Amino acid sequence: MKKLKEFILNSRPWKSFFRHGWPDNPLDRSLIMTTNIFFHLHPVRVNKKSIKASYSMGLGIITTVMYILLSLTGIMLMFYYVPSVETAYFDIVTLQTKVPFGQLLRNMHRWGAHMMVLTAILHMARVFYTGAYKPPREFNWVIGVILLIMTFVGSFTGYLLPWDQLAFWAITVGTSVAAYEPLMGKTIQKLLLGGPEVGQAALTRFYALHIMVVPAVLFLLIALHIWRVRKDGGLAANEVKDEVEAEDGK
Ligand code: HEM
């Protein structure tokens, strides 16, 4: 048995996959973190306080999970949905009434979107109350603000797609409100609607924004955001401890 274990551990395929030895020493422990793309999101060393659930409440991570859930359920919805004013409403009705688990799929996507808006706002509040926006994290705060806006844009553009009365009038009101913005208002409204009122051009534009532009921008910015957390040395809790220790004269 011992020989077999050694044979496996010393074999080329094993070594090409796992680039570290057994983690019973600091070097191998840090290699585990730096050679794995998912663990590499964290710095090699983190302060215990920063990984306590009560510090960040995992809100940024929950928001990321919501993004992944929305992408997966969104891809599945695309199998059934055609962005045409003639068929869109009936596609959704068919999905809910005839497709197995269709209602569940739609609800997961819809509730996931509500949840993402909620957790992104709560995450921002957490970052604010723990003072984690302070230097050197101002850049990540700015990325965060864009992430929040893109999350809203995702919800807004998705709202029109069911093409029911609620969708039609909500987007009519929403784009009319946008038109009151003093400088670019009318242009923004025209760009969004592609015509004088909510119609096929608007549905096509909202669909393109919803399934391509918003998810792609969110993907890139979430990657940048999480990478930045790592490069800033993990969550801000790390520095809080240092400051307290410095004040105590430790
Ligand atoms: C799509 C929305 C967002 C996602 C997916 C996201 C994701 C994350 C994740 C995974 C972390 C690290 C762990 C954690 O705190 O749970 C984080 C940290 C951070 N986020 Fe976000 N975030 C989002 C929105 C925002 C917003 C709206 C802001 C502020 C305007 C923000 C500012 C920050 C900052 C400054 C940190 C570092 C926190 C620290 O050092 O303690 N993020 N984010």
Can you describe this structure?
Helix 6 packs across helix 7 and helix 9 packs antiparallel against helix 10. 71% of the residues lie in helices and 0% in strands. The chain is mainly α and 250 residues long. The protein has a domain of 173 residues: Up-down Bundle (Cytochrome Bc1 Complex, Chain C), CATH 1.20.810. The longest helix is centred in the C-terminal third of the chain and has 32 residues. Bound molecules: protoporphyrin IX containing FE (HEM).
What secondary-structure arrangement, pairings included, does this model have?
Layout: H1 2-10, H2 12-17, H3 26-34, H4 53-56, H5 59-78, H6 88-97, H7 102-129, H8 138-160, H9 165-179, H10 185-193, H11 200-231, H12 237-248
Bound molecules: protoporphyrin IX containing FE (HEM).
Protoporphyrin IX containing FE binds next to helix 5, helix 7, helix 8 and helix 11.
Core attributes:
250 residues, mainly alpha, Cytochrome Bc1 Complex, Chain C, binds protoporphyrin IX containing FE
> Which compounds are bound in this model?
protoporphyrin IX containing FE
Radius of gyration: 24 Å
Q: What fraction strand?
A: under 5%
Under CATH, the topology of one domain can be stated as Cytochrome Bc1 Complex, Chain C
Report how far apart the termini are. 50 Å
Fraction in helix: over 70%
Morphology: globular
| Mean pLDDT score | 91
Number of E strands: 0
Distinct helical segment count: 12
State the CATH superfamily name of one domain: Cytochrome Bc1 Complex, Chain C
CATH architecture designation of one domain: Up-down Bundle
Counting helices, strands and paired strands, the structural category is: mainly alpha
Sheet with the most strands? none
Strand-and-helix sequence, N→C? HHHHHHHHHHHH
Broad CATH class of one domain: Mainly Alpha
Low-pLDDT stretches: 242-250
